[in-house]
Each structure stands twice: as C-alpha cells, then as structure tokens.
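Morning, I've got a small favour to ask if you have a moment. Here's the protein in full, and shout if anything looks odd to you:
***
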Amino acid sequence: KVVEKMIAKKQISGGQILVQHKGEMVYFSSFGMRDLKEKSPIKQDTIFRIYSMTKPITSVAAMMLVESGQLELDKPVGDYIPELRDMPVYGQSKRKSNTHNMTVRQLMNHTSGLTYGFFSNTPVDKMYRRSQPLLSQNNQKMIEKLAEIPLLYPPNEKWHYSIATDVLGHLVERVSNQSLERFFTRRIFEPLDMKDTSFHIDKGKLSRFSSSYNAKLGLVERYNKSYFQIKDRIQSGGGGLISTSEDYLHFCQMLLQKGIWNGKRLLKKSSVAEMTKNQLPSGVLAYGFFGFGLGFQIQTQDWGNKGHIGEYSWSGAASTHFWISPKDEL
C-alpha cells in the first residue's frame, strides 16, 4: 500500500520489495515502471543501480583479505597505499607532528577523516568538487587526487560519511593484485550466484535495466543511454555496482548465515560478527542515532517495530535499501 501510494503521488516511478523470513521468501512484489517513456513495468529480474549498497560488498572483500593475512585492520592505510601516508588535516599546521595516518578499520567505519565533496560545504569538500576524484579514469588516479587534499578531521574523531570505501576498493586491488571487478566476480559474485551484479550493464541485459528518476520523476538517466554501458571506467568500491533484488538477497543470506551460502563458506563466523557490531569510538554516533560496524549501519537501540537491537543495514542513492535482523531471522 505504501509503495502504491508513492507511485500514485508521483514520488517514485516504481518499486520492488523482497522479504525473506526464516529462510523462506515470504514476499516478492514489483510495482510501477522501470521506464516511464516506454511504459515498461518493473519485473522480478529488473536490474537497478545500487550505488552505495556496493559498500558492504567492498567491505566483505576487504575482510576476506584480512582472513588470508594480507590485510590488517589496525595498520595504517599508508602501509598499503603509500600516497596516503602522513596526510595533513585541514586547518592544522603542516609540521610533521600534525600529519595523520588513518587505518583500514577507520576506512570501513567512516572515521578516517575523509569526506565526499557533495554532502557538505566545507573548504575540504570544495577541494573535492574541484578535483572530482570519483570522476577519475580509475582508482589509482582517484588516489593521486586524494593525496593532494587534506583530511577534513583527524582520524577516529568523528563519524563522517565519505569516499573511504572507494579507497578501500583500491586497497583491495593493490593487496590482491587484481581489479576490483575480477576480485568481486571470483570471490563473491560467482560463489553467491549473483549473475546480474556488475560494474557495467551488458548489451543483452539492457532491456532489463531500470531508468533513473529524481524525487519529482524528472529523468536522471535513461536505461539505454546509461554510462553503466561503458566497460572501461572507474570501478567504484563505494558506489559502482548494479544488481537485482534476488542477487543482493544472496549476499544478505550469506551474512545472516554467518558467512555461509548454499553450503559454501565465504567468510568466517568471527569476521561477520566483527563487521556487524558497533565499531565507533565512545560517544560517536552515525547520523546522531546509530552505531557503525565495518561496512554497515548498526541499530544499537530497540525501536519496537521500527528497529531491533543488532539489525544492520545500508542504502543507495537511488532509493535502494536493505536491512538484516539476525534476531528475527529476517
């Protein structure tokens, strides 16, 4: 009813809801249009831009490297990406004692001191907007741009949503010595049977791809004119993937089942526990209410039917959302 009302009010072009409870798919419905001009309906296999729902996948990739001993959570990022060693903080003097080294853990829980460029209007955000690191040709070029910009805050001081998971994606590339797409495909997408999750849309799947609209149904990007058709572009660990609801459910199932999917173990139970507990310093909250783990927002208070302690979740810029309630097997 809620989604149908939003469509009637022209707040969204369409939507899709998938619910799994105790291992059983109890609800899967599609509403409205994936493309308004063609009047093409959203179907169960429609492919969406998941944007920042890429971040948990990148975080899982990083934890795989932690498990194999190739990465350490509390090591400085500069040990793996030397360009980001000894970064100054904006407004502090440039003496050596005032340089800072964010850690891998701080990248994953957004206390690294980095920012994004488009959520706030600080002098550092303005530098991001001039430099446009996310519009770089590849992740290496992005790092080179970031190395020229100071941190917004000293690491571990504040929770500030940022480009940190894009840096984490490049860290995965450096440590594994392969592209992010190759690592994701071999270690995550193939084992989880995520057939439609990728950094680009294949020609043969274009007719299943959704167009993108803003809150007033203005066209943001037509499905058949999308830059997701370009193969040779930056593989953004912070927001570069497209996927389907069923594909992403497989990823969520693996997490809910403590690292196992279809009899295959992708992560250790202890890794999932570490990722899904609050990792923020004492007194620090995400958005004023939440904890944050290693790639997930964490529900730390009981809100009755609006949220249970221990739930973890994240969202994407084009109105995609997922949440997992371990307590409810939901």
Notes: The radius of gyration is 20 Å. Residues 80 and 174 are 7 Å apart (CA to CA). The mean pLDDT is 96. The longest helix spans residues 54-67.
